[in-house]
């Protein structure tokens, strides 16, 4: 049952990364691909009706983590105190960038909010990547299950790590590139004309970087934590995950060459999902590795009671069926290419 | 008091107080927008749609700030209150997760549809999107109140071998008797904010001789719903909440009423400044025997004073608790009076000419915000010194691993961030008010 809830949290997190990933990605490339006011409006419109719903996956994942693994929630959130609060600030700024841009029709106002949207999206991607890097690298958990990490120390993966060191910065940059490509695929899918051409070009330029960074981070991960291969050795079926990652990178290239935006977008969805699955597979059953392995937080020592998990499964299944229903409905309603119809549909 | 502890408390108090200024209007306006959309279909008159569109814009801005200030709330349990989260997460994490799964998804999905989709949808589909946003926002209110109610009156839990708590009865948690009254009381409070804001905007337009037809509609909807909500606040829900307190938190009730000594036939303090050292009240105005009646329905019955409880279980800030409570109750009484007068004037068809009353309606919109805030302060300060009533003291729940300086860094950051948000909010709302509900010239807000 604990493993099931672990999988549920992982799936919810992956859903969050894939969904909010494309609107963060759209923010990252926003300032580079959209030059005119019309184009910028189109980028924002492509995520406007859905970004908030996408972000709710973060809240729902947080809530689920909270009750299913209270110790993990308590330890990691207080230990990653500073970066987490900064992520919250960035989420606020980004939301303002998206929501308030159109309220005042003045170039200076709009430019400012475009910048805010882009800036916050870039930093968010880096923070998310670094956060994942921290989880893979491990943190200095004590016997009491708590730790506290400063933002940076000596930038080395040593006994006194900071949130940022060369390894987690590498993860951050990888996340930035991966989400930028993902966002580019989304915007390409949702737009036509020059904007579409330009976003495809951006995806093309970033593609080699993604390939190199993915391989680099694989090598780096295995060099700092070689024991992460243990699960793969024990269950060699796991090797299909990294193969799938490579395949998804290749598919991105092929679909983009063919001009199939949907295919490219689905490939980057697969890429993000498989990268996460690969990490989770390597870590299991550890959920937050400690610098000293005897203090690792595992599924068993951080999970709630059996009754709570059983009862929660009932409402969770019911709730998620509803949520899938909403999302299918909403994405169909706002499906197709974004159009600027001048007279304006009523927005706010 | 350890200073890290103080900083963690201040940050939570600041962020939650600021945050709740927005959801109360969200939850208050949502049903009124549904009313307007219903009238539009029922009377087949586009003026109601115009009104709904105008309020949807205000709603949208307000909702956005509510969302961005709400995200930190869910995370601060872990960042600043990790020992509490470890202790109680197995129980209250459930209601918080349910809020995400059942309420936030509903709200966010259909808000997009409601705000962006009027042209694509049939009138009934658009009505439904408004209805589902209303449902989502009120559901979210329920899960949050149920979470707080569990901290006020813990039920349905077991203690695990490691000392932390876990859920033992799902339905006791979800149907906590404390939550039911608190929810009704709180939602009536939110409804009142919505009604007062709508009346204030209507009165503002009518006093400035602008948007006459719309302004009268706003005032009418506001007065009728406001009357109803004020009645609910003072009547059954306030009373029910008070009886809950008398039963489960008598020490908090004694402190709220500044009732220091246990005796028979206790009076109700209307105004006065409590002095905790001398256990007296300065400048008191007291209704004799009223408290005994309210608590026990018997004028001469005994009511426990603070002396009946060990001092370490007294609420930690009695004067603030006393004032918060008295401000809430005092304002509630004033709201009832205002709504009664406005209601009578509306019924006699004299309200729109009674400019003095319109001035009152226009200027009184801040007070429901104050009353709602004071009400929540009453609940949460009254809960002290407990974080989970009777189980976990507040000073045993904060994140000991986060230092005072790191806490202060983020507290200052939140203050700065929220100052900017306040300015943005004021500016954007001002612009919407200036545009008004009637379609105006090409300079009107462009859409995205």
How would you explain this protein's 3D organization?
The complex is a heterodimer of chains A (348) and B (448). Chain A has one domain (2-333). Helices cover 74% and strands 1% of the residues of chain A. Chain A has 13 helices and two strands. Chain A has helices at 2-33, 37-47, 51-68, 70-79, 81-100, 107-137, 166-190, 193-224, 230-234, 240-258, 261-283, 299-302, 306-333, and strands spanning 286-288, 297-298. Chain A has a two-stranded antiparallel sheet. Chain A starts with a helix and ends in a 15-residue tail after the last helix. Mean pLDDT of chain A is 88; it is low at 342-348. Chain B has helices spanning 3-20, 23-43, 46-80, 82-116, 123-152, 170-174, 177-207, 212-248, 250-256, 290-296, 318-347, 355-363, 366-383, 404-435; strands at 157-159, 165-167, 263-264, 268-275, 280-287, 302-303, 386-388, 392-393. A two-stranded antiparallel ribbon of chain B has the order 1-2. A two-stranded antiparallel sheet of chain B has the order 3-6. In chain B, strands 4-5 form a two-stranded antiparallel sheet. In chain B, a hairpin with a 3-residue loop joins strand 7 and strand 8 (392-393). The longest helix of chain B has 37 residues, at 212-248. The model of chain B is unreliable at 441-448 (pLDDT under 50). Chains A and B meet through helix 2, helix 3, helix 4, helix 5 and helix 13 of A and helix 3, helix 4 and helix 14 of B.
């Amino acid at each position: 049952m604990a493993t099931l809830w672990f999988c549920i949290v992982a799936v919810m997190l992956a859903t969050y990364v894939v969904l909010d990933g494309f609107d963060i990605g759209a923010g990252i490339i926003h300032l580079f691909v959209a030059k005119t006011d019309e184009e910028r409006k189109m980028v924002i419109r492509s995520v406007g009706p859905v970004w908030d719903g996408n972000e709710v996956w973060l809240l729902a994942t947080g809530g689920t983590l909270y009750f299913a693994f209270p110790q993990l929630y308590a330890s990691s959130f207080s230990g990653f105190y500073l970066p987490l609060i900064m992520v919250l600030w960035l989420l606020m700024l980004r939301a303002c960038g998206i929501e308030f841009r159109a309220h005042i029709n003045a170039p200076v106002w709009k430019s400012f909010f475009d910048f805010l949207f882009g800036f916050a999206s870039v930093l968010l991607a880096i923070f998310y990547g670094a956060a994942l890097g921290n989880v893979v690298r491990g943190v200095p958990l004590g016997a009491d299950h708590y730790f506290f990490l400063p933002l940076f120390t000596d930038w080395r993966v040593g006994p006194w790590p900071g949130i940022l060191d060369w390894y987690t910065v590498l993860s951050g940059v990888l996340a930035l590139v991966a989400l930028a490509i993902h966002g580019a695929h989304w915007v390409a899918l949702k737009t036509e004309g020059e904007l579409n051409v330009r976003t495809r070009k951006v995806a093309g330029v970033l593609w080699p970087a993604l390939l190199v960074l993915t391989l680099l981070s694989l090598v780096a991960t295995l060099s700092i934590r070689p024991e992460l291969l243990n699960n793969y050795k024990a269950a060699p079926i796991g090797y299909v995950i990294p193969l799938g990652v490579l395949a998804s990178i290749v598919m991105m290239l092929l679909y983009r060459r063919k001009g199939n935006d949907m295919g490219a977008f689905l490939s980057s969805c697969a890429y993000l999902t498989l990268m996460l699955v690969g990490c989770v597979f390597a870590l299991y059953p550890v959920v937050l590795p400690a610098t000293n392995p005897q203090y690792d937080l595992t599924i068993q020592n951080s999970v709630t009671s059996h009754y709570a998990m059983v009862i929660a499964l009932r409402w969770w299944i019911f709730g998620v069926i509803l949520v899938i229903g909403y999302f299918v409905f909403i994405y169909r309603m706002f499906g197709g290419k974004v159009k600027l119809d001048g007279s304006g549909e009523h927005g706010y | 008091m350890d200073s890290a502890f103080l900083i963690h408390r201040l940050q939570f108090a600041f962020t939650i107080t600021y945050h709740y200024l927005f959801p109360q209007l969200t939850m208050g306006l949502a049903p009124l927008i549904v009313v307007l959309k219903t009238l539009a279909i029922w009377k087949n008159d586009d003026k109601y749609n115009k009104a709904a569109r105008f309020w949807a814009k205000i709603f949208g801005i307000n909702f956005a700030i509510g969302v961005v200030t709400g995200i930190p709330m869910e995370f601060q349990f872990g960042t600043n209150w990790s020992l509490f989260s470890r202790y109680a997460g197995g129980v209250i994490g459930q209601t918080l997760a349910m809020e995400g799964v059942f309420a936030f998804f509903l709200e966010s999905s259909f808000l997009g549809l409601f705000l962006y989709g009027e042209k694509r949808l049939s009138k009934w589909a658009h009505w439904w999107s408004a209805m589902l946003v209303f449902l989502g926002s009120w559901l979210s209110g329920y899960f949050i109140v149920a979470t707080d109610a569990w901290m006020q009156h813990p039920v349905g839990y077991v203690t695990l071998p490691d000392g932390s708590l876990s859920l033992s009865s799902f339905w006791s948690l979800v149907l906590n008797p404390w939550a039911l009254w608190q929810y009704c009381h709180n939602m009536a409070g939110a409804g009142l904010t919505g009604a007062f804001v709508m009346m204030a905007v209507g009165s503002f337009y009518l006093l400035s001789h602008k948007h006459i037809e719309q302004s009268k509609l706003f005032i009418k909807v506001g007065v009728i719903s406001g009357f109803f909500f004020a009645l609910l606040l003072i009547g059954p829900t306030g009373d029910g909440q008070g009886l809950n307190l008398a039963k489960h938190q008598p020490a908090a009730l004694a402190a709220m009423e500044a009732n220091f000594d246990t005796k028979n036939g206790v009076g109700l303090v209307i105004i006065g400044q409590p002095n905790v050292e001398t256990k007296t009240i300065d400048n008191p105005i007291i209704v004799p025997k009223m408290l005994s009646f309210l608590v026990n329905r018997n004028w001469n019955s005994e009511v426990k004073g603070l002396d009946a409880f060990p001092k370490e279980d007294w609420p930690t800030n009695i004067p603030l608790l006393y004032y918060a409570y008295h401000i809430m109750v005092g304002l509630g009484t004033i709201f009832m009076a205002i709504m009664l007068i406005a209601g009578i004037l509306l019924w006699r068809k004299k309200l729109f000419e009674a400019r003095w009353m319109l001035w009152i309606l226009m200027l009184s919109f801040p007070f429901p915000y104050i009353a709602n805030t004071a009400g929540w302060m009453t609940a949460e300060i009254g809960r002290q010194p407990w974080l989970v009533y009777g189980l976990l003291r507040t000073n045993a729940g904060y994140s000991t691993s986060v230092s005072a300086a790191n806490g202060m860094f983020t507290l200052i950051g939140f203050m700065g961030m929220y100052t900017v948000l306040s300015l943005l909010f004021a500016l954007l709302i001002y612009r919407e008010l200036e545009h008004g509900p009637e379609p105006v010239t090409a300079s009107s807000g462009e859409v995205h």
